[in-house]
Amino acid sequence: MDLQLDQLRALDAAITEGTFDAAARRLNVTPSAISQRIKTLEDAAGRILVRRTKPVRATESGLAVLRLARQIELLARDTARELGDELSEGPVRVPIAVNADSLETWVMSALGCAPSGVCFEIHREDEEHTTGLLRDGTVMAAITATAQPVQGCKVDRLGAMRYRPVASPEFARTWFGDGAAAGAYAVAPVVLFDRKDDLQDRLLRRRSRKPLDPPRHYVPSSAGFATAVRLGLGWGMLPDLQTKDDLAAGRLVPIDPGVVIDVPLYWQQWRVHSAALSAVAATIAAAAADALR
Hints:
By secondary structure, this protein is of the alpha/beta class. It has 13 helices and 11 strands. Strands 3, 4, 5, 6, 9, 10 and 11 form a 7-stranded mixed beta sheet that branches. Strands 1-2 form a two-stranded antiparallel ribbon. A two-stranded parallel sheet has the order 7-8.
């Protein structure tokens, strides 16, 4: 296939921006030029790459070409920086997927140490599901709970985040006054991040062979989740990185002393030789070494 850089950039811009008009503004061309470039790219590939919906979406074949487009763009900008021409190419855009608790506790300080000339696009996603964003080319790297590398990626272990079940003192006295038995877990309200969040149910399965379905609050924000637990809406699994001060001050108490769940975290990234991506990986690894178990 004879794939031209301007055609690949048009595909990337259309999928990223969602419309041909927005892609045209990003690349300083006309919408018809975007359409023509993608049509020529589809002719070269011999298949449809883009669903012309609102927003524009890539087909399965289009996702494969999209990954290639973004990898080539990354390498092109790296090369421009090596040649001292980074101003004409602009900053290197590095989209990464990060789970909410890592984003709230230790990742931002790592990204603050990243080299200049890198712009981040952070996608918040549960650590069990971030690899899907790697597969479809949405992100170049991800913090994930999956040790098995995605095709075309390499993986390094970062460490583990330790979680423990906690609640406000009043909530603990009301619902767990007689201890953390299965009967208490069956009726005590629980806080979950979203419907992908399995941490609390993992603990419930430890405590009972029978499925337990207590009342549930869904709070899709790491900070909001912790606030909900502090306010007594329910108990929840919170990371030690987030609760150290609250436990010391008595604002939170463990409801099941000695019970913890360690969630291993890994860094997966495209297997390309990119100076920018390698620098980001190094800052993430250094911060993880200080923050994680």
